[in-house]
Amino acid sequence: MDWTDRHCRYFHRLMSKDALLYTEMVTAPAVIHGDRARLLGFDPAEHPVAVQLGGADPSQLAQAARICADMGYDEVNLNCGCPSDRVQSGAFGAVLMESPALVSDCVKAMRDAVDIPVTVKCRIGVDEQTPAEILPTFLAQVSSAGVDRFTIHARKAWLQGLSPKENRDIPPLDYPLVHEMKALFPHLHLSINGGITTLDESLAHLEVMDGVMIGRAAYHTPAQVLLAADARIFGREGVLTEQEIVHQMLPYIEQHLSKGGRLHQVTRHMLGLFQGRPGARAWRRHLSQEAHKDGAGAAVVLAALDHVVVQVA
């Protein structure tokens, strides 16, 4: 949330044609009653793109899923993994791990409402639950409602005592348990998530799992994760350079500015593009200092790029 907006997804799509991109989580009531263009608008170039919904009311989720399908999304995903306070107060997100019957009702209503895939993202458990017991029970009950694709974050969520940020790092990862789920449920398409930062790690997991979801590393070091993904994961030829990605972003940036947008709304997602490369700090500093200014445009991006190109050449 607050990261993978439409500008981020467009930028990421330039680096990988094949990876499935996900929206920020949007609550079902917001989809139904809110500004849909702002919350759900996306560029056709983003396909394949999935919308991630939050909620616990089957009828609301069905209505929201129908709206998202009508807007052209390729998949609708129910979030049963987010541990934020706002989510807990609404009794959805990770707290749904405690209510697999309700999740089943929700996904059945969503599947009845749309023709696109309905999927679920979950944790291995919450609070005092025993993951080795609760996770297979959860997968069995929810899949009985017709869902055959799950993404499993290989950590518990501690709803009491840990902040959302701490829930991304402190609970220990249990990759072996998630791998065991693939053996227990060979007919399900299971992806693994949590703490995975490189393509090498992804390929190791893909020897067991059907998919890998990468969040923070894909955002903070996008070139290291996404630029070679199509070649190494999907067998597609042709890998662009970081500089080529910047130049391909310029028409999008110009279009955004022509509609009254601000440069930093796009470039904030590009700060990590050159992470680990000479000039990366100067690139970040220039964009951070200049992109917020009135009248900032593509020239700011090209000036920032000069810091990198000069030092790499």
Question: What's the topology here?
Answer:
Blueprint: H1 6-15, E1 21-27, H2 28-33, H3 36-40, E2 49-54, H4 58-70, E3 75-80, H5 85-89, H6 100-113, E4 118-123, H7 131-143, E5 149-153, H8 164-167, H9 175-184, E6 189-193, H10 199-206, E7 211-213, H11 216-220, H12 222-226, H13 229-232, H14 242-258, H15 263-267, H16 280-290, H17 298-312
Parallel strand pairs: 1-2, 2-3, 3-4, 4-5, 5-6, 6-7
Helix pairs in contact: 4-6, 6-7, 14-17, 16-17
Question: Can you describe this structure?
Answer:
- With 313 residues, the chain is α/β, with parallel strands linked by helices.
- The chain folds into two domains: 227 residues, Alpha-Beta Barrel (TIM Barrel), CATH 3.20.20; 71 residues.
- It has 17 helices and seven strands.
- A seven-stranded parallel β-sheet has the order 1-2-3-4-5-6-7.
- Helix 4 runs parallel beside helix 6, helix 14 packs antiparallel against helix 17 and helix 16 packs antiparallel against helix 17.
- The longest helix is centred in the C-terminal third of the chain and has 17 residues.
- It is globular, with a radius of gyration of 20 Å.
- The chain starts with 5 loop residues before the first helix and ends with a helix.
